[in-house]
Amino acid sequence: AVVSTQSTGDYIGKHYQPSQIYLSAAGGVDHAELVKLAEKHFGGMPAGQETALEFPPARYSGSWMNHRDDANELAHVAVAVEGCSWNNPDYFALMVANTLVGNWNRAQGGGKTLPSQFARKIHDMGAAQSYMAFNTCYKDTGLWGVYGVCEPANDELRRFIGAVQAEWRRIYRSASPGEVQRAKNMLKTLMLAQCDGTTAVCEDIGRQMLTYSRRIPLAEIDARIEAVTPEIMKKVMWEYVYDAEPVVVGLGCTEGLPDYSLIKFQQTSGFD
Q1: Confidence band for 161, pLDDT divided at 50, 70 and 90
Q2: pLDDT of the residue at 172
Q3: Residue 230 pLDDT > 90, yes or no?
Q4: 24: exposed, middle or buried (C-beta count within 10 Å: 0-12, 13-18, 19+)?
Q5: Do 187 and 225 form a contact (C-beta atoms < 8 A)?
Q6: Cβ distance 137 to 172 under 8 Å?
Q7: Which among 101, 118, 198, 242 could disulfide-bond with 27, CB atoms 3.0 to 4.6 Å apart, if both were Cys?
Q8: What angle, rounded to 10 degrees, do the helices at 156-174 and 91-101 form?
């Protein structure tokens, strides 16, 4: 579809309705003054649709896409499985697992002192320049996986993907209570740091209202993260990772990207 002034205006007219807009404020705000400003700047908006827009449920499909470009000196790869939606009870367990995998880049250094066992392994293997675990959630589904940047030499791409899948199996089989607790503490710290400042707090309020129709109190977030145990980690790794159809994306100098069938086979190997 071609993006034009008309199509952009139609999109705004359809989606930017009062029933789908939240006005949030944080800091030293006078509520009465905020209401006056809202009435002044938004009071003239037409009522529009009072019900939320309905979309067909999203459907996840395992897939493989490789855009090979040898002019690029590096290989970029993402491997993921189907995650969960924002409202799924497993959301925080997958976030803890995501924190366990962690992130790292060569400029960061650290080596043996890195908190993530997987980061230490990648550092020692020299299998990537950087990597980042991600947990992207949508209304109906999600993507849970790892993105990495590798050099094409020394079979780095195959070794990196193999290391990612080995780490997923390790978390399922033997994640210790100590490292799970460390991941929970780190996740709490990261979520609190994201709300450092009034701008970040406003964004957080708006995002949670659009997602949950309420703002989850920090005490509830803390309790839900603290409720994650090694047993729950084992359960979600089995349900979301074992025998899952992965999505694999390669970009750049990706001659060494393993075949999809091999990556899929590794989703079952070693989980028993």
Answers
A1: very high
A2: 94
A3: yes
A4: middle
A5: yes
A6: no
A7: 198
A8: 130
DSSP-derived pairing of the beta strands 142-150 and 130-137: antiparallel
> What is the per-residue pLDDT for 210?
84
Rounded CA-CA distance 95/169 in Å is 17
Radius of gyration of the chain (CA): 22
Task: Report the distance separating Cα 245 and Cα 264, nearest Å.
Answer: 6
143: which strand partners?
82, 136
Alpha-carbon distance of 187 to 121, in angstroms, equals 21
The DSSP symbol for 149 reads E
**C-alpha to C-alpha distance for 46 and 213, rounded to whole angstroms:** 22
Return the number of other C-beta atoms located less than 10 Å from residue 232's C-beta.
Answer: 17
CA dihedral (216, 220, 223, 224) positive or negative: negative
Sign of CA dihedral 36, 40, 41, 42: positive
Tell me the per-residue pLDDT of 41-79, one tens digit each, with 9 for 90 and over.
888 877 665 556 677 888 899 999 999 999 999 999 999
CA distance 130 to 19: 42
CA 93/CA 229 separation, integer angstroms: 8
Query: Mean pLDDT across the chain, nearest whole number?
Result: 90
Residue 11: per-residue pLDDT: 86
CA distance 13 to 30: 30
